[in-house]
């Protein structure tokens, strides 16, 4: 292989040497026809110098051969440079065509291949034709990547919201698969985004309706709306904790009102005392819709009514004890009048225990 390369190089040098000698002879002939030139003058000057110096013909031939070799080296270096330039153009053309084919495949535009004319075109012309095509395809790819990024960012955001979590600041961006930027894939992602948006809208409507209901109930129950929403999720409001036991007060209030009325009738409580609790007793005959006035089911109202019921129960027990003891004293007088013996102490204690136990 090395011998073949040397042989080829030797043949090329011989061709170059012949070309150089031909050029030199043409230059000499041109110089003679023009009546002398710098080349002829230099040749004459060299001959005169060699004569004066006394150089032999052998030395003169050796110097001329060295000059020819230097010229061949310069020429060969120039040829090598042009070969490298050609190789670079071929490589650039090949890489450009490969990148064009790759981008077309990634974008899914197989039906519209971009032709690159080679027939009758030099390498420079082919490269100059490829460059604007490649720039246009790169621009299309960047635009498509932006579309994918926007769609996938929205998908990630909605999925995070639907899962009940939040995206931390500086969170990772959605991963774009740049191997598949086809319109088909983009359409699939947009359809998925549309489905997620519908699901989000449905849940937002439900959440809005629930928040409205909570607001109305908080108004009826005299509760802090912000605190109540914070119990649902901290994202709604920043407030302290609250117990949600008052949800059942709509059923507690009528029952408390009935007990109050029963005890008042039993204890003969005057109307002035009863009027203090009209907002509770009025709920006995009211429907659920009529009971939803502002503050009508507030916890302080319910607690106040329960305290009144407790007070009346204690008062009832006291009154009952007084009544029973009064009746028992009358009964004792009757027994003594007819000279009958009876364990009045044990009977009195038993009656008191029954009253205390309710």
UniProtKB/TrEMBL annotation:
Keyword Glycosyltransferase attached: no
GO MF annotation, one: microtubule binding
Segments passing through the bilayer: none
InterPro entries: MAP65_Ase1_PRC1
Any GO BP: microtubule cytoskeleton organization
Any one of the GO CC terms: microtubule
Pfam name, any one: MAP65_ASE1
Keywords tagged on the record: Microtubule
Family: Belongs to the MAP65/ASE1 family.
PANTHER family: 65-KDA MICROTUBULE-ASSOCIATED PROTEIN 5, PROTEIN REGULATOR OF CYTOKINESIS 1 PRC1-RELATED
Name of protein: 65-kDa microtubule-associated protein 1
Organism: Platanthera zijinensis
């Amino acid at each position: 292989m090395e011998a073949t390369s040397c042989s080829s190089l030797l043949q090329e040098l011989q061709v170059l040497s012949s070309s150089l000698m031909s050029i030199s002879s043409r230059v000499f002939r041109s110089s003679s026809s023009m009546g002398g030139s710098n080349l002829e003058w230099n040749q004459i000057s060299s001959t005169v110098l060699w004569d004066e110096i006394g150089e032999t013909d052998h030395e003169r031939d050796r110097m001329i051969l060295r000059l020819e070799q230097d010229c061949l080296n310069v020429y060969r270096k120039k040829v090598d440079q042009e070969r490298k330039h050609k190789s670079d153009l071929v490589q650039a053309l090949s890489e450009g065509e490969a990148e064009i084919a790759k981008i077309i495949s990634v974008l899914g535009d197989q039906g519209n291949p971009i032709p690159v004319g080679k027939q009758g075109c030099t390498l420079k012309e082919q490269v100059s034709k490829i460059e604007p095509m490649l720039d246009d395809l790169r621009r299309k790819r960047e635009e498509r990547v932006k579309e994918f990024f926007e769609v996938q960012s929205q998908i990630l955001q909605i999925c995070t919201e639907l899962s009940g979590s939040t995206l931390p600041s500086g969170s990772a961006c959605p991963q774009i698969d740049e191997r598949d930027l086809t319109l088909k894939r983009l359409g699939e992602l947009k359809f998925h985004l549309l489905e997620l948006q519908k699901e989000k809208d449905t849940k937002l409507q439900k959440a809005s309706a629930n928040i409205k209901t909570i607001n109305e109930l908080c108004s009826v129950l005299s509760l802090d709306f912000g605190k109540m929403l914070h119990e649902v999720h901290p994202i709604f409001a920043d407030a302290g904790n609250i117990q949600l036991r008052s949800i059942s007060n709509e059923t507690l209030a009528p029952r408390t009102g009935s007990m109050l009325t029963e005890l008042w009738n039993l204890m003969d409580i005057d109307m002035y005392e009863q009027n203090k609790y009209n907002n509770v007793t009025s709920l006995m005959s009211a429907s659920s819709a009529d009971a939803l006035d502002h503050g009508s089911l507030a916890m302080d109202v319910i607690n106040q009514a329960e305290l009144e019921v407790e007070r009346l129960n204690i008062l009832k027990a006291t009154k009952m004890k007084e009544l029973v003891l009064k009746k028992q004293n009358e009964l004792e007088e009757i027994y003594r009048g007819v000279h009958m013996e009876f364990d009045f102490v044990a009977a009195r204690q038993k009656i008191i225990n029954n009253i205390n136990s309710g």
